[in-house]
Amino acid sequence: MPLNTFATVSTFAGENNDVQAKDTKGYPLYISSYLRKYRLYASLYECYHSWMKSHHCNAATAQDGKEWHSRTEICSESAVRRTAAMLDIDSDAFVKGTPLPRGWQFILMGADTRRSLLRADGFPGLGVTMPDFGLPRLLLGGRTVSYLKDIPIGGSVLRSSCIQSLTRKTVESGPMAVAEIRHELRLDGDTSPALIETQTYLLLPALKGSSSNTVSSQQADLSGYRVTTVVPDETLLFQYSALGFNSHKIHIDRSHARHVEGFPDLVVNGGLVTLLLTEFLRREIGVQLSSIKVRHITPLFCGRPITIVANQEDAKWRLRAYDHRSTLAVDMEVGTHEL
User: Fold this and answer.
1) Is the pTM of this model over 0.85?
2) Which residue has the higher pLDDT, 4 or 64?
3) What is the CATH architecture assignment of 66-335?
4) How far apart are CA 5 and CA 16, in angstroms?
């Protein structure tokens, strides 16, 4: 505002006609003018403050050199109810304002990668563009999730994603790369995350010959505090992939899975296996999780039974998934400290 504005105000205030002139609300005109200016500046400040909050992640992490990608996602009732239907539970129990079950955040992680930018194997990147490096095969190696706040159904969240680390290496089987993708979900208006998830992907070279599918010579002990068996079918794999907008061909294209990647059948999504484990803990044992750490050891396949074993270890739970040969496929450590 120009410095001589206040002198101008004093001049107006000293002029009897202007002081007496009033607007429709009874304010002197010179006061009414400055009220309008104040409201304009306040409105501009509010817009700027809102923009800064919505871009907090980008601004806060620019110093680490990582490229963050942000999207606003709605935790919609329809997506939640379809997830419930996929899990064969009553979808009417999930209504606006109630917390999203912990473990269901995959519906907020879907990428909107254009088809022309997909990897050759169909993997969408899930929030960031996944590099190729001449390594056409990709598998999920693990994930960690920290549940810091509940996400309300119907609420708006800001999802920010980046490649946290990218390591290229050469092993006995040839070149490979390990990519860690970090996601942070913030409730509308919050600056601190409600959820932090890091996914580890393995980028692998083209397959030469059949995929190695070594059978363990030692049968695992499948006893535990609670044990159950599930058989994932094509419908379950399709519904999970559709809800997460995941076009990775190893989950939906049997010909690609067998003839290009060398698997015996469609591969069960790593995220789907994690969901089955967390749902077993939530629904069958009644545990509210606060964190998970998952390690994927060997793929699981469509139409083949998966045995889930749950055991309590001090303040934590350990869940393991075994394939049809009783080989350990997924190992998950669960923190259950109530926040």
Assistant:
1) no
2) 64
3) Roll (3.10)
4) 19
Question: Order of strands, edge to edge, in the sheet holding 226-230?
Answer: 69-74, 156-171, 174-187, 195-204, 137-147, 291-296, 328-335, 316-322, 306-313, 226-230
The whole-number average pLDDT for the span 96-113 is 94
Closest CA to 183 of 230, 219, 227, 148: 148
Domain boundaries, the chain: 29-65, 66-335
List the one residue out of 276, 277, 255, 273 whose CA is nearest residue 265: 255
Closest CA to 241 of 286, 197, 275, 271: 271
Q: Is pLDDT larger for residue 322 or for residue 26?
A: 322
List, for residues 5-24, the tens digit of each pLDDT value: 334 333 334 444 444 565 56
Distance CA 28, CA 32 (A): 6
> How far is Cα 303 from Cα 277, in angstroms, rounded to an integer?
17
d(CA 191, CA 204): 37
φ/ψ of 307, rounded to 5, equals -100, 125
> How many angstroms separate the CA atoms of 169 and 177, rounded?
6
3 contacts: CB under 8 Å, gap ≥ 6: none
Amino acid making up residue 275: L
Q: What local confidence, expressed as pLDDT, does residue 339 receive?
A: 37
105-150 pLDDT, tens digit per residue, is 999 998 888 888 888 899 887 777 777 788 999 999 999 999 999 9
- Give kind and range of the element (H or E) at residue 332: strand 328-335
Strand partners, 321: 308, 330
Residues 6+ apart with CB under 8 A from 64: none
